[in-house]
Amino acid sequence: MSQLSYSRTDAEAALDRVRRACLRLPEISERPSHGGPAFFLNGKKCIAMFLDNHHDDGRLAIWCAAPEGVQAEMIETEPDRFFYPPYVGHRGWLGVHLLDCDQQELDAIVTDAFRAVAPKKLLLLLDQA
Asked: How is domain 8-124 classified at the CATH fold level?
C-alpha cells in the first residue's frame, strides 16, 4: 500500500471540483464505473473518471478523453502534472493530477474531454451557452 500525499478532505474536495467541472456540461451525468465516480455523455460515452488511489498508485486524479495529440504533448511538457493512464491511455486519454490543477484549468480540461467525444449538435449547444 502506498503512502498517500493527500487527505480524505483533499479527496472529497477534489471530487466536488470534478463534479462541478463535469456536471455543468450538457447531457452529462454521473454514475459509478470501475469502482469510482465517472461522468458520461447521454449515459453512454464516458468523458472522465475520478480516481482516488487507484490500485494503490497514490494518485488523486482523473482520467479523461483528450483531443488527438494532447496526451503526448501534456505528458512531455509537464510530466509531474499529467500522465499516461492505464487501460485507457492507448485511446489517447490523459491522466491529470488533481492536486496540481485549479478549478479553471480543470474546467478547461473537462470541456476538452467533452469536445473529444460529443456529437456536433452538443458542441453547438455548448458553444451557444
From this structure: Aspartate Aminotransferase, domain 1 (3.90.1150)
